[in-house]
Amino acid sequence: MTATAAIEIRPGLRARPRVAAVMFDFDGTISLIRAGWVEVMLDGMRALCPPAPGEDVSALDHALRQDIVRLAGRPTIDQMIVFAGRVRARGGVELDPSALK
């Protein structure tokens, strides 16, 4: 395998013979495997997003949960643009997606 990005070699690091693999999650795609991550996001979003007139809270939770899962791994700003649009569509306050990051 050939690396196309810069690789930093740290000669001062000690070998760790029992470590078989290391994974870096730069874009958050595996954040869903952390216990409770969806609930943490849902709680934060629920506080800012009112249900639409006549909408059941469980329906709102379902919609927000779908957004969280569907947008996992995308840049945070993309996630917050979708969220701000959902809040606006439900008559909530105008949110600046860049401030939500």
Describe the structure concisely.
With about 100 residues, the chain is an all-alpha fold. About 45% of the residues lie in helices and about 0% in strands. The model has no long low-confidence stretch (mean pLDDT about 85).
Structure commentary:
By secondary structure, the chain is mainly alpha-helical. It has one domain (1-101). It has 4 helices and no strands. The longest helix has 14 residues, at 57-70. It is elongated and about 60 Å long.
Q: What is the makeup of the main sheet?
A: none
Tell me the series of helices and strands, N- to C-terminal: HHHH
Count of domains: 1
Rounded to an integer in angstroms, the radius of gyration calculated over CA atoms is 19 Å
Give the rounded overall mean pLDDT.
84
- The low-pLDDT segments are none
- What level of helicity do the residues show? 40-55%
The shape, in one word, is: elongated
Tally of individual helices: 4
Helix-strand category: mainly alpha
